[in-house]
Amino acid sequence: MIARLGISISSGVIVTFALLWLMQFLIATGREALSDKVDFRMMDFIRVKTEELVEQKDRKPPKPPEVKDKPPEMPPPDMDAMDPNAPKVNLQRVSVDINMQMGGTDFAVDGEYLPIVRVEPMYPRRAQTRGIEGYCDMEFTVLKTGEVTNAVATECSSSVFKNSSVKAVLKWKYKPRVVNGEPIDSPGVRTRLTYKFEE
Q1: CATH for 114-195?
Q2: Considering the chain, what is the average pLDDT of its residues?
């Protein structure tokens, strides 16, 4: 019994010392491995921008158009070849009388209003999708400045055309009516806007 106990104690001591020695050896070799420096080389990749050579062509200006030769001059009439007995043509002078009234020193000529700018109305989208065609009668006033005001839709085949017609007419420009050399307002101007699909 005592012999077995002694063998167990001695073997345990031997194993313990062996483990301690092994641990010391591993620690020593690990420090040497960590102390070794690893040389890392970083490589930089830089894109080099290549210069594009643009070939330039010399452009010559176009040649000026050639001037056509002048028409040949008409030869003077031969007086000797003319027949003195030929009948004479009676040329009468025509008189034109132009009567233009000027107001004072102003050079404005009396006349009615004339459209200068007419903006076409936009076809309403709801009417386009439904395939609706029609018209809209408008009444408005042309001011002495040429602008349009008081645009009213008096009659429309469909109410869908009303807003588009009013917006378009208000953008119109006119040459105002002139009376006695002075521009005046022209109320009650009427027109019809027709909405129709192109065939």
Answers
A1: 3.30.2420.10
A2: 73
